[in-house]
Amino acid sequence: MTLNPATPDFANQLSAILPDGVLRDIEPRYLEEPRGRFNGQAGVLALPQTVDEVATLVRSANAARVPVVPYGGGTGLVCGQVMPDGPAPLLISLERIAAIRGVYPQENVLVAEAGAILADVQTAAQGANRLFPLSLASEGSAQIGGNLSTNAGGVNVLRYGNTRELCLGLEAVLPNGEIWHGLSRLRKDNTGYDLRGLLIGAEGTLGVITAAALKLSPVPAVRGTAMFVVPSAQAALDLLSFARDQLGEAVSAFELIHRQGLEFLAETLPQLRQPFERAPEWCVLIELGLSRGQDPEQALADLFEAAVGDGCALDGVIAQSETQRNELWTVREQIPEANRLIGSVSSHDISIPLSAIPEFIARGGEAIAALGAFRINCFGHLGDGNLHYNVFPASGKSREDYDAQRSEVKRAVHDLVHQMGGSISAEHGVGRLKVEDVERYGDPVRLAAMRAIKQALDPNGIMNPGAVLKV
Amino acid sequence: MTLNPATPDFANQLSAILPDGVLRDIEPRYLEEPRGRFNGQAGVLALPQTVDEVATLVRSANAARVPVVPYGGGTGLVCGQVMPDGPAPLLISLERIAAIRGVYPQENVLVAEAGAILADVQTAAQGANRLFPLSLASEGSAQIGGNLSTNAGGVNVLRYGNTRELCLGLEAVLPNGEIWHGLSRLRKDNTGYDLRGLLIGAEGTLGVITAAALKLSPVPAVRGTAMFVVPSAQAALDLLSFARDQLGEAVSAFELIHRQGLEFLAETLPQLRQPFERAPEWCVLIELGLSRGQDPEQALADLFEAAVGDGCALDGVIAQSETQRNELWTVREQIPEANRLIGSVSSHDISIPLSAIPEFIARGGEAIAALGAFRINCFGHLGDGNLHYNVFPASGKSREDYDAQRSEVKRAVHDLVHQMGGSISAEHGVGRLKVEDVERYGDPVRLAAMRAIKQALDPNGIMNPGAVLKV
């Protein structure tokens, strides 16, 4: 199917049927992405204010066979939001469709429009004494529509699930320009295929999400945070099992940190206070969210004592104040910034079946060592089996020194992940960056089914072409 | 697309390429369903032992344009498992593909084949000191494949979600007879469309689920059970909010019970011990699952005291022993049996946005009263907004006396549910019983998308024709 560019003529057609102010000059920020890998392009930029305007835009694009790229906060890391080649697309930014339409505390539901900033959704939930648990580094600028389209992960997946699990219903414009009114606030609705789950994670290739009914949770009455030194990655897993046996769902986050990350922090952000005098080989950050009447410091102290007895903890720091909690979290949250300052050869957002992680770390280290001298910073959401496995230049070398080796490093990591039953994209999605990898490693029967679904819902192939599936 | 019956010739074709013992004589039990509404038919019955045999069966049926009905435990309540008319189908029972393939306690994952009985899955999880939380009345005979195909609900959805939320990956035979190897044990895998979520709840119309990787949870260390009398349905909701504020996710179940249900119990099962001397208008059954070191009786006593102070509880019984816990649960679990013995005019498995439930109960009562003299037993999973809203003959009358009114009663209930943003099938699915209702009340854009997906994945329309979508 040949697509046509969004030309000035097409823009004129749209102007005639849309209110003033919907079509805008294309600012460069809409064509950039955080990693600077791709430069986007656009023929027309639209900032609709209503769902009907989105429908008009998509319907017109479908009739004219013009590609459509939906645009949220622009924080995606796999280039789903920038279309670097092919006919110049119509870019639809949802930023003006951003209201919190309703908060229903008794139902534990909040209805937000796609352009609402994630942090604002969190705040609206807090205002009703509820928790919207999705939390990730870009929450100050990411939009909930983008979080949904990419099925975002973040630090609370262990307890609360991925974005797909946090959504009850959707309103969306399908590729034919029709509006699906599916903003159900129901926990249970078993009346046919899960179109909601299908659009979530489709990265704009099956339609434009315009609003969502989101699940809220009770706010844990008290929180506790600790960092435990563990003798090995296996011990970290044992500690996780142990913590969940003792504390159940109260374990909200369980983050693995490697010495390399702490050393990068010391090197690039020396003002940052570190919890241990000597950086340990492995440590974990544990966050508990407990109900009323429970004592988080005591719970963590009991856990520590038992873990030491069991050989799965060596040392530990339990936060005694909000300041100390923030300090511990800052260490975890600044690791990506330290990584950025060092400059990786290749970064990987992978997941591995939990029990295979120690073996993966061992075999990954060997595979990378076989390719040359590198430093590896392996850290992340251990509770979800989601590691950020990032490979860096040896000390004294720079990212550019390894330009020739980048693809073999990436290939070695992804081959191993695939062999061990893991995923080459745990939480960032496919976008355009990982389309080839999904083709290489994906189950062919599933890929064929995905293509059939894409063809069925978007026969002209206008929605975000080149993302998720090869054109 | 015209389909052909599964003839003796077709059976002979299959015999030639399958091991002995796969094709069986058709016993009547495969053609019946629990409510006796439909009589099924079948041309050939197959009991494959391997996924490859399922693939061979489906591939052959697809080539011959023979309809396929997948068969699990046969406990479905909406007739998805029986095809009463059209060309006689190939019935594929999964009962011999029933192994627990693996338990991964450290990952909180269990891999089960479709034919495994739900109770056996629960037991296998318990054996690894883990909880598989799906729990429903038919768990002793329902198979996990059927639970997945119907996205079953049950009593623990409030805390743990529907079956879809309890599944990480699937192995399935798609309508073209190809096997999707998607048994991922990963919590996070963001590499394309959610085929898993689409097959779950598709009731066998998009393929045959043959195995699943299931999510396990920590076993709550201690449990507590109580029944509180509440002054109104609104107070029951207030109590639920209150309980979740105090106890967070520890509230595992929150079941609403109406006086009518207790009176039916007294009438039909008089030997059953009831918790209150005089049946209250409304009461709720509360189940807590707490972590180590917490005291469930104390937690329930605190909740009761606070709830009385707040005006949302009037009286209460807190179980002090396992025997008392079982007694309270027996009351709840025997209500459907009492209903069956009384004989309903019309039963409805509906859900309503939580905050609209009191209004629904009031308006539903008025709508039914306008149609004549009836008794209403409204009970169910209040925490999920899922009510079993069952309408019974007035005292002294029988079900048959209302035969002429049955459809208008059903229509009145469903119209009101739809008006109030609810679902006409909360947990039982669509099957064949509710196809017309889904056509009437469903969002037309969603229905069109469902049809497009069905056509894309099953172009010959062989999979469970007549279920979920009109042929």
UniProtKB/TrEMBL annotation, chains A, B:
<dbReference type="GO" id="GO:0022904">
    <property type="term" value="P:respiratory electron transport chain"/>
</dbReference>
<dbReference type="GO" id="GO:0071949">
    <property type="term" value="F:FAD binding"/>
</dbReference>
<dbReference type="InterPro" id="IPR051264">
    <property type="entry name" value="FAD-oxidored/transferase_4"/>
</dbReference>
<dbReference type="InterPro" id="IPR004113">
    <property type="entry name" value="FAD-bd_oxidored_4_C"/>
</dbReference>
<dbReference type="GO" id="GO:0003824">
    <property type="term" value="F:catalytic activity"/>
</dbReference>
<feature type="domain" description="FAD-binding PCMH-type">
    <location>
        <begin position="38"/>
        <end position="219"/>
    </location>
</feature>
<dbReference type="InterPro" id="IPR016167">
    <property type="entry name" value="FAD-bd_PCMH_sub1"/>
</dbReference>
<dbReference type="InterPro" id="IPR016166">
    <property type="entry name" value="FAD-bd_PCMH"/>
</dbReference>
<dbReference type="InterPro" id="IPR016171">
    <property type="entry name" value="Vanillyl_alc_oxidase_C-sub2"/>
</dbReference>
<dbReference type="InterPro" id="IPR006094">
    <property type="entry name" value="Oxid_FAD_bind_N"/>
</dbReference>
<keyword id="KW-0285">Flavoprotein</keyword>
<comment type="similarity">
    <text>Belongs to the FAD-binding oxidoreductase/transferase type 4 family.</text>
</comment>
<dbReference type="Pfam" id="PF02913">
    <property type="entry name" value="FAD-oxidase_C"/>
</dbReference>
<dbReference type="InterPro" id="IPR036318">
    <property type="entry name" value="FAD-bd_PCMH-like_sf"/>
</dbReference>
<dbReference type="InterPro" id="IPR016169">
    <property type="entry name" value="FAD-bd_PCMH_sub2"/>
</dbReference>
<protein>
    <submittedName>
        <fullName>FAD-binding protein</fullName>
    </submittedName>
</protein>
<dbReference type="Pfam" id="PF01565">
    <property type="entry name" value="FAD_binding_4"/>
</dbReference>
<dbReference type="InterPro" id="IPR016164">
    <property type="entry name" value="FAD-linked_Oxase-like_C"/>
</dbReference>
<keyword id="KW-0274">FAD</keyword>
